[in-house]
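Section 5: illustrative case.
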């Protein structure tokens, strides 16, 4: 049994049982992936995949039972490498942060500046994407830390920690009628709106507020990035709804903002890491620089939650030992720092 066999099984599942795509991900050949899977099945004495001819069509009951354990084995191997690197280089390495556009542009800069001053030999890799993409980066081991408002708490394989609260603001050019008088959902619904795409930066709460009022908003333009939204509001394409932290009075001189927390409620930004992942010292330091309430003790306490019967929780013994043990009898689940 070897890690390449386990990776072949995992990637075959991730690629929808397409061995050609799995081979591309693993930088090998399709026959090579097929051989690795067959050798593992022969060693375990059971079939992990259902087949139609030479084509994989799905997981067998034993395969479905063992897949989470295979994934734990591969995660622990990654943890082992990172733990070794930790002792070789306590204050250098690569830290990959995945965040939405709004978080990367408005919430992260001060934390990044503080972190770089403390860890000048750590290379920071900032990746941007949708909340679902950020979650997948964490699950795939492509990011150490994920930061977003939506989606991160929906994955049991992740530990998502609340770090700060924020509200939306309505933005418009100076002199716009909405800037005078009380801001109501009815007045807002009378104008074309420019706001976030679905699943971004509290958009769920915006949709919910209009639905509860029995109103259908006129969504003129949606975008992932607050800067894009502000650009089109400046051009007169509609009234904008953005995260409050995205409006900067000293820079956005052609716009005015009104707090809309009473309309859309309070949003919660979360920091997430993969459950069971080994966190290097500077990962803890970055999280605390971004959210000072999340010190190492708080993070460790959150990472230790969950019972050993939960597949998403840390296991009390070697995942590889579990694989060997189960295989023969397997028979068939606040505010941001500025």
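Designed sequence:
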């Amino acid at each position: 049994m070897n890690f390449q066999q386990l990776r072949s099984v995992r990637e075959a599942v991730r690629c929808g049982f397409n061995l050609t795509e799995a081979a591309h991900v693993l930088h090998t050949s399709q026959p090579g992936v097929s051989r690795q899977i067959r050798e593992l099945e022969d060693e375990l004495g059971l079939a992990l995949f259902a087949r139609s001819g030479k084509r994989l069509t799905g997981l067998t009951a034993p395969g479905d039972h063992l897949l989470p354990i295979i994934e734990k084995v591969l995660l622990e191997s990654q943890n082992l490498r990172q733990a070794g690197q930790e002792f070789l280089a306590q204050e250098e390495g690569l830290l990959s942060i995945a965040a939405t556009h709004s978080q990367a542009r408005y919430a992260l800069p001060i934390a990044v500046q503080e972190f770089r001053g403390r860890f000048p030999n750590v290379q920071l890799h900032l990746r941007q994407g949708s909340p679902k993409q950020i979650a997948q980066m964490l699950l795939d081991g492509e990011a150490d830390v994920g930061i977003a408002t939506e989606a991160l708490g929906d994955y049991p394989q992740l530990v998502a920690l609340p770090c700060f609260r924020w509200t939306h603001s309505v933005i418009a050019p100076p002199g716009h009628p909405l800037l005078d008088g009380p801001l109501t959902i009815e007045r807002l619904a009378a104008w074309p709106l420019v706001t976030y795409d679905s699943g971004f930066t509290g958009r769920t709460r915006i949709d919910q507020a209009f639905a509860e009022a029995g109103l259908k908003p006129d969504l003129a333009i949606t975008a992932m990035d607050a800067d894009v939204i502000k650009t089109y509001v400046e051009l007169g394409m509609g009234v904008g709804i953005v995260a409050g932290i995205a409006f900067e009075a000293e820079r956005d001189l052609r716009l005015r903002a009104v707090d809309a927390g009473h309309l859309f409620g309070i949003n919660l930004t979360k920091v997430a890491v993969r459950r069971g992942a080994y966190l290097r010292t500077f990962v803890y330091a970055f999280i605390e620089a971004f959210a000072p309430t999340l010190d190492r003790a708080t993070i460790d306490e959150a990472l230790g939650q969950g019972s050993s019967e939960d597949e998403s929780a840390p296991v009390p013994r070697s995942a590889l030992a579990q694989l060997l043990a189960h295989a023969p009898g397997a028979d068939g689940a606040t505010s941001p720092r500025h």
